[in-house]
Every structure is written in structure tokens, then in C-alpha cells.
Write a structure and sequence with these properties.
13 helices, mainly alpha, Methane Monooxygenase Hydroxylase, Chain G, domain 1, about 0% strand
Length: about 260
């Protein structure tokens, strides 16, 4: 019962630092909800990036089974992030308007961890480096990610090492740019789906990637719905088009061939 000079729960988790990080700028009731929602989301994103990076390393070494466990965790993290929107949606337009002006130009659009997740999964838009230009350290992290193969890139390279006819131009593409859907690659995945027993590990890899994108799409959709419910069609605090911008993001596909293959089967 005595922890003077010994590691305690509070010490290990650095709870003084974590629980002291909420600094509302107003005395409105709902600002604390807004702050905690975004801070906890950033913590979950830290873990998602940890798992995505480790999974890419594992797939590159053809250690697919450990990668599946890591990527299953990523999907559950995205589910956790989805559930968080349900809490934020208890905030009404009147609640948010009471402190919104104090946010200045700060916006979730500026989350560099979210940007890293997008980049690592394949949505690589170099124009989105600009909001972080004032932070050379963050820009360096994002630029470094653009030089690394995406999760989908390492998956496709694994297929090629496994003897599947992944087109050479797909394997040799400029990885700093977004992947472009290719019909020949659809047929590679079709070959896997038509004979799952022969290609079981790749079949499982395909479904794991679909699972991740499924949850990621729901995260985006819930974001759109929450924003429209709280601010309607106002512009975002960061200068984006708000709901209109978020709706455009719903059309972005991370692993397009894995969705197209369902039509040809």
C-alpha cells in the first residue's frame, strides 16, 4: 500500500501529464468533451500507426500470420474511433457554437497522425503537406512516409514473391503517388479468390485489407454525419469546405482492385 519511491499506476501511465493536458479556453460545458474526443482519437491513431508500421515490416518478410494479428487490431482501433463519434454527437449545434470561435483556425484536418495513416494506407496527396509546412519536424515525418511503400504496396510485392503475375509497372511505380486501379491486378486477386485453398494466406490477406478499408470508410462516414449534424454546411475552422470536403473523401478508395474483384467473381 506504500508507493513512495516505487513505480505506481499513475507514474507508469504518466497520468499527471495526460490528465493535465485538457485546457479549455472557455467555461462552456461541452468544450471538455470536444477536447477529450480529439485527444483520445490521437492516442488511438498513435497505436494504429504502430501496428500498421509493424505489419508492413512483417509482410515484407513474408511473415503474414503476425501481420494479420496486427492488422486485425488496426480494424478494431478504427471501430473504436467510430464509436467515439457517438459520444461527440451528443453535442448540439448550440453547444458547439458557444466555444467554436475560440478554436481559431485549428481543425482535425490538420491532424498529422491522420495524414500519416492516410499516407501509409495509400491515399497519398502531396498537396496535404502544406498545412504542416510551419512544422519542419512534422513535414519530415510525412515526407519520410511518402518514401516508404504503402501497406498495399508491400501486400502486392508479397503476391509477386509468391509467384502471382503482379504487373511489373505496379511493382515499380512511384510510391510517393497514389496507386491507380489496374484491370490486370483485378485478375490477380480474382485468381486468389477463385482458389482460396491454394492461396489461403493471400486470400486471408485480401480479406484483412478489405476489413481495414471497411472500418476506415465507416470512420469517414461517421465524421461526415457528425459534422453535418453539428455545424450543417458551414466551412470548417481550418478553411476546408466542411461537409462538402468530407463527402468527397468518401469516394477515395485505398485498395480498389479488392472491391472491383467482387464484381467479376
Amino acid at each position: 500500500m506504500h508507493f513512495d519511491g516505487r513505480m505506481s499506476y499513475t507514474d507508469y501511465l504518466q497520468l499527471d501529464l495526460v490528465l493535465g493536458a485538457q485546457k479549455p479556453l472557455t467555461d462552456t460545458h461541452d468544450e471538455l468533451l470536444f477536447i477529450i474526443q480529439h485527444q483520445t482519437s490521437e492516442l488511438w491513431m498513435t497505436l494504429a500507426l504502430h501496428e500498421i508500421n509493424a505489419a508492413r515490416d512483417a509482410i515484407s518478410q513474408d511473415a503474414l500470420q503476425p501481420a494479420f494479428k496486427m492488422l486485425a487490431r488496426v480494424a478494431r482501433i478504427f471501430e473504436q474511433l467510430n464509436n467515439a463519434w457517438d459520444v461527440l454527437r451528443t453535442m448540439t449545434p448550440s453547444d458547439y457554437t458557444a466555444f467554436r470561435d475560440e478554436l481559431g483556425q485549428s481543425s482535425g484536418f490538420q491532424s498529422w497522425q491522420y495524414r500519416l495513416i492516410e499516407f501509409s494506407l495509400g491515399n497519398r496527396n502531396t498537396a496535404l503537406l502544406q498545412p504542416h509546412a510551419h512544422r519542419p519536424d512534422i513535414t519530415a515525418k510525412l515526407t519520410s512516409e511518402l518514401a516508404r511503400p504503402t501497406l498495399y504496396d508491400v501486400a502486392l510485392r508479397a503476391l509477386a514473391r509468391g509467384g502471382l503475375p503482379v504487373p511489373s509497372f505496379v511493382l515499380d511505380r512511384d510510391i510517393s503517388r497514389p496507386h491507380v486501379c489496374d484491370d490486370d491486378l483485378v485478375h490477380v486477386w480474382e485468381q486468389i479468390y477463385r482458389d482460396p485453398q491454394k492461396y489461403w494466406s493471400f486470400y486471408e490477406l485480401a480479406e484483412t485489407l478489405v476489413d481495414i478499408e471497411d472500418y476506415f470508410r465507416r470512420w469517414r462516414f461517421n465524421h461526415v454525419t457528425t459534422v453535418e449534424r453539428v455545424i450543417g454546411f458551414k466551412r470548417g475552422t481550418g478553411g476546408t469546405g466542411g461537409v462538402d470536403y468530407l463527402r468527397r473523401m468518401l469516394a477515395v478508395e485505398l485498395f480498389p482492385e479488392l472491391w472491383r474483384v467482387r464484381t467479376v467473381l
